[in-house]
């Protein structure tokens, strides 16, 4: 597990033994998973548990702002970039 970012009291994590599609897990006051390349190329929430709607909006916006950074980290950790 590699913490690639922290914001709003949450950790943005990429697991080293994870699978495509490229995504991040978010942990803190609850948990969420965001696909880094959703429909239209924008990040999209896969699920969230225990995360308030306001926090989820902040986390989604943060994932969009840092999308290229997160994709570069995914490639660095996994040696490949999602091909979708």
Q: How are the SSEs ordered, and which strands pair?
A:
Blueprint (H helix, E strand, L loop, with lengths): L1 E6 L2 E5 L8 E6 L1 E6 L8 E6 L3 H13 L1 H12 L6
Antiparallel strand pairs: 1-2, 2-3, 3-4, 4-5
3D architecture notes:
This protein is of the alpha+beta class. The protein has one domain. It has 2 helices and 5 strands; from the N terminus they run E-E-E-E-E-H-H. It has a 5-stranded antiparallel sheet with strand order 1-2-3-4-5, with helices on one face. A hairpin with a 2-residue loop joins strand 1 and strand 2. The longest helix has 13 residues. The chain starts with a strand and ends in a 6-residue tail after the last helix.
Structure summarized in a few sentences:
This protein is α+β, with helices and mostly antiparallel strands. The chain is built from 2 helices and 5 strands.
């Amino acid at each position: 597990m590699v913490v690639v970012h922290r914001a709003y009291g949450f950790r943005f994590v990429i697991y080293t033994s994870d699978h495509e599609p490229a995504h991040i897990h978010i942990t803190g006051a609850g948990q969420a998973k965001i696909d880094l390349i959703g429909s239209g190329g924008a990040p999209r929430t896969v699920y969230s548990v225990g995360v308030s709607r306001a926090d989820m909006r902040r986390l989604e916006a943060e994932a969009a702002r840092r999308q290229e950074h997160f994709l570069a980290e995914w490639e660095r950790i996994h040696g490949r970039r999602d091909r979708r």
